[in-house]
Amino acid sequence: MPESVTNLTALTAGVAEVIRQAAGEVPSVWLTERLELHRRQPDARAWARDFSRVSRRMGRRALRPSSADVSRLQLLGLAWPDASFAVGALARWLLVTLPAETAQRRVWIGAQLNYGDADEQSVLLRSLPFVDHSGELVDLAVEAGRTNALDVFAAIACHNPYAARHYTEAQMNQLVMKAVFLGLSLQDILGLQARKNAELARMARDFAAERRSAGRSIPEDLGVIADAGGL
Amino acid sequence: MKFLDPHIHMTSRTTDDYQRMSEAGCVAVIEPAFWMGQPRKHLGTFDDYFSSLVGWERFRAKQFSIHHFCTIGLNPKEANNDALADDVLELMHRYLEKDGVVGVGEIGFDDQTAAEERVFIAQLELAREYELPVMIHTPHRDKKRGTDRSMDVVTDVGIDPGLVLIDHNTEETVKDTLDRGYWAGHSVYPETKMDESRMAELVVQYGSERILVNSAADWGVSDPLKVPKSAKKMQERGISEDVIETIIWRNPIEFFSQSGRLDLAMDDGSPNRDQRELWQGNSVLRGQSPVVDEPS
Ligand SMILES: [Zn+2]
User: Fold this and answer.
1) Which pTM does this prediction carry?
2) CA angle at residue B8 from B85 to B75, to 5 degrees?
3) pLDDT in tens, B87-134
4) Partner of B110 for a Cys bridge, out of A22, A106, B42, B76, CB 3.0 to 4.6 A?
């Protein structure tokens, strides 16, 4: 993961190039100009407006990055978008990762999480590991994760290292068990091995017992969080 | 017969309605923001309502292969509380740029007060700022005068009539509406306003140019199938298929496409119907088998 602004700069440049190839010249020029404007003159309302309309400006086409692009972005720490991902959503991600003063960013991200539609909320949560290395925004992530909207919850729980880095044990355990309940794959929770604990193993065991009593199947990957006591 | 219902409050309808609409050929709906039958008292209730129009309701519609779009606005019945109205106008900035929002509406006059006029004008300015078409609700009481006055306000603000849909027209208002260059919507209700036969006669007289039909179905006595039922009555009256298709399909698309956001081509036509999809962890289905369209 990029821990420095230098890496983030390289990553955003790489993302901008993938967007240019997918969206074409004219939308990319518009995006570059807007990014530059938001750097120079930060304004919450103008930024929020671009955050909503960028999807339409960039088009709904799916990203079709070359395998070389994908490897390049993965090396820079962006495990997330895949080929089915719309180019507009990646452009949204660029707007959130704009280098900006942290206090201001916290206010903007918090406001957008409140007023965003599901697509917007997902992008915000996916941007967190890139814009917040100290865990300052962890309360916003935990609150947003209280939703049962599957896409939004998956954006913080799956292919996103933020929770494992910054959540308390109780918060992490709730996230993992909620992923189990929603049928998400535990393999997709980054950093889970390092966050395993006895309490989580007990919760998994109780969950398995509950399922057995109800005559229902137990998710195959539940064993990932079990301990020597088994399920 | 495919159709777009350009004015229907799906938040107040059940999944049975979505099912029947889908079977009758409904491809898309426009849900204008309106009121709840009694005035709201808190900004937060507007916030959550607007949020559901760009969120949950879109998902519900998609499960029945129906595209859902909305218009955002402060309706005139709730425009007379000045302090709350100002807060709602400010809140609208948060929603007017969303992908699912294709207009400002429904706005206009109810009691035709000065407070209503102030909020009406402010929202016309918002429509201009966000480059959105406008849906105007004409008043039930003193309708003719209220409709003329609504169009005068639009003229004063300087918005092109081609960007404005005047809704709930009757025989008394439609000629002026069309003569002044506006689009004319007609709400076909079971009892009041317009019925299917009158609607068909109106089409015989005025043709199809800038004419729209909707059900305006909501929480009151109303029928979400009034658009296909009106089309059937037009067929019986000998009106050509081409004219009917213009009224129930091409016209609403042409009008709301002026937003640049009515993306019916999204997902290659109709959204894939996959009722297995979850929203907020809850399927709308309760026990019955999901309908799943094979990807085309
Ligand atoms: Zn209405």
Assistant:
1) 0.85
2) 15
3) 999 999 999 999 999 999 999 999 999 999 999 999 999 999 999 999
4) B76
| Domain end call among A49, A72, A99 | A99
Question: Does residue B286 have a pLDDT over 70?
Answer: no
State the best of B70, B97, B268 to mutate against chain A, taking most chain A CBs within 10 Å.
B97
Which run of H or E residues covers position A71? helix A67-75
How many angstroms separate the alpha carbon of residue A103 from the centre of ligand 1?
A: 42
User: Is A16 in the same domain as A91?
Assistant: yes
| A84 Cβ under 8 Å from any chain B Cβ | no
Residue-wise pLDDT for B5-62, tens only, equals 999 999 999 999 999 999 999 999 999 999 999 999 999 999 999 999 998 898 889 8
Residues B232-246, mean pLDDT to the nearest whole number: 97
Cβ-defined contact of A115 to B95 (cutoff 8 Å)? yes
Tell me: pLDDT of B272 over 50. Answer: no
Segment A139-151, tens digit of pLDDT: 999 999 988 778 8
pLDDT at A67 (0 to 100): 78
Domains and CATH numbers, chain B: 3-259 (3.20.20.140)
What is the edge-to-edge ordering of all strands in the sheet holding B211-214? B3-5, B26-32, B67-72, B101-108, B134-137, B164-167, B183-187, B211-214
Taking CB atoms and an 8 Å cutoff, what residues of chain A touch B282? 148
Q: Assess whether A95 and A141 both reside in one domain.
A: no
* CA terminus-to-terminus distance, chain A: 33
| Number of domains comprising chain A | 2
- On whether any CB of chain B is under 8 Å from the CB of A122, the answer is no
Instruction: Examine residue A211 and state whether it is found in any structural domain, yes or no.
Output: yes
Residue that has been written with the tokens 């300015």 in this structure: B125
Amino acid in the structure at residue B229: K
Give ∠ CA B99-B100-B103 in degrees, rounded to 5. Answer: 105
- Domain membership of residue A206 as a residue range: 134-231
Q: What ipTM does this complex have?
A: 0.78
